[in-house]
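Hi Y.,

Following your request, here is the sequence exactly as I used it, all 155 residues.
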Amino acid sequence: MKKNKEYAQNIIEFVFVFFVTMSIFLSIIELSLYWRAKYSVANIANEVSANIQVVAQNTKSADKIIEAAQNSLKNSVGLLNLEGSGFSLSGTNNSYQIKSNFIKNNQSALVAFIDIRNLNNGDVCTAIAYSYSGIFLFQKGKTITSSPSCSVQKF
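Below is the corresponding structure, written out as tokens. Let me know if you'd prefer a different format.
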């Protein structure tokens, strides 16, 4: 009888410890995935800004600059596991949005904001918004935005 009580107590202790340990373990994994996505968004914004800055040095054509931004996004969305995602362009007056056709949480998973309004002075600004949805902590989704990445040509 004493062994049965000890066995039952061990099972109950195991269940409590197991769920607490698994919760901590899954939280650590989820936070690491979140921070990876956060840094990837910042890297994508900087890469897009740098690539369109190079194109802006050679031409003042908004079409070529936006095309360079779209190509840069297509090449770097693998960091966010959005390979093969198509993009749509909207906007006027040298302020554009490039949206991914991949939908997360009822919105576009990736949106790039490109501002070339002050192109004559060589100013180019980009910002990226990514809809992150996690497995454990951020199930309802969380939007990760990069700070605006602006570059100014000084020659």
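The helical segments are 2-58, 62-76.

Thanks again,
Q.
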